[in-house]
């Protein structure tokens, strides 16, 4: 029997019971794939992160991520949660940790201030697929409950990724965004066809000058009908906005705040920064707050 330490962390917020929750097992050495899947299913967060000791001298450890139904390669909010929990568990000072993930070894920055922490996650390589043809676009819009007239004409419907891809769908109205009621079974079928499990619908309609976008993210194919606040959607959105020349930037840097989770009463804010070279995104980081909801132990 071994005692495993589990944190429940709300991310992209400083208020408990808001933002996006993630489980974190801070000492996962010895857990099997089956046990990790069982823990993730039991905690029933959109993702649970498992932190392992390093297996070489080139990293500070390894992280794996599980939804209640399957393993995923990377997860933004669960990374923020994992680094926050690790910082709390070990009372870390400000530092940069390099962790192996399924999308490569990535640097995660822990910033200590006033006995609390923020986490900055460097995401994987940005990739943007060609825009979908009109037939596929119409299928996606219909499954989400949208008409072509709802879309923002500046925003092509296409897949963007920093390691865990999302279909980007820009629309005009925040009211329409919050009224969406997708057909989840159709989205699941489309996910198999498109080889992409997430659909991020966003709008620039905002009544807060500090918030550029409001969004909602649906991923029923991996057991998450709607995710409250999604790092692997808002991060790629930054690259998407730059590569499609939708957003301006200064001194090779584009930075914005995206808000998500209002419909679920779990609102949170993600800060996204995009470094740009030759008018193309080359490095994407997300930054967020977090707070521990509870800490517990389990013997296996």
Automatic annotation (TrEMBL):
<dbReference type="InterPro" id="IPR003719">
    <property type="entry name" value="Phenazine_PhzF-like"/>
</dbReference>
<dbReference type="GO" id="GO:0005737">
    <property type="term" value="C:cytoplasm"/>
</dbReference>
<feature type="active site">
    <location>
        <position position="47"/>
    </location>
</feature>
<protein>
    <recommendedName>
        <fullName>PhzF family phenazine biosynthesis protein</fullName>
    </recommendedName>
</protein>
<comment type="similarity">
    <text>Belongs to the PhzF family.</text>
</comment>
<keyword id="KW-0413">Isomerase</keyword>
<dbReference type="Pfam" id="PF02567">
    <property type="entry name" value="PhzC-PhzF"/>
</dbReference>
<dbReference type="GO" id="GO:0016853">
    <property type="term" value="F:isomerase activity"/>
</dbReference>
């Amino acid at each position: 029997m071994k005692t495993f330490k589990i944190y429940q962390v709300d991310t992209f917020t400083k208020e408990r019971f808001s933002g996006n929750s993630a489980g974190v097992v801070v000492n996962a050495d010895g857990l099997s794939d089956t046990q990790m899947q069982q823990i993730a299913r039991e905690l029933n967060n959109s993702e649970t992160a498992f932190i392992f000791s390093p297996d070489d001298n080139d990293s500070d450890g390894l992280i794996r991520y599980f939804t209640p139904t399957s393993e995923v390669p990377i997860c933004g909010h669960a990374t923020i949660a994992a680094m926050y929990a690790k910082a709390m568990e070990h009372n870390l000072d400000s530092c940069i940790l390099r962790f192996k993930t399924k999308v490569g070894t990535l640097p995660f920055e822990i910033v200590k201030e006033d006995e609390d922490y923020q986490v900055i996650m460097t995401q994987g390589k940005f990739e943007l697929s060609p825009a979908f043809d009109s037939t596929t676009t119409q299928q996606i819009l219909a499954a989400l409950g949208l008409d072509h007239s709802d879309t923002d004409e500046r925003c092509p419907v296409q897949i963007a990724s920093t390691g865990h891809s999302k279909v980007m769908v820009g629309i005009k109205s925040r009211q329409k965004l919050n009224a969406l009621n997708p057909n989840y079974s159709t989205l699941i079928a489309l996910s198999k066809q498109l080889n992409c499990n997430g659909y991020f619908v966003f709008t620039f309609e905002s009544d807060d000058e500090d918030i550029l976008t409001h969004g909602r993210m649906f991923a029923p194919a991996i057991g998450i009908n709607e995710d409250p606040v999604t790092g692997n959607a808002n991060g790629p959105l930054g690259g998407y906005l730059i590569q499609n020349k939708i957003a301006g930037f200064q001194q090779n840097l584009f930075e914005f705040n995206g808000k998500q989770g209002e419909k679920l009463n779990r609102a949170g804010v993600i800060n996204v920064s995009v470094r740009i070279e030759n008018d193309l995104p080359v490095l994407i980081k997300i930054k967020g707050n977090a707070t521990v909801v509870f800490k517990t132990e389990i013997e296996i």
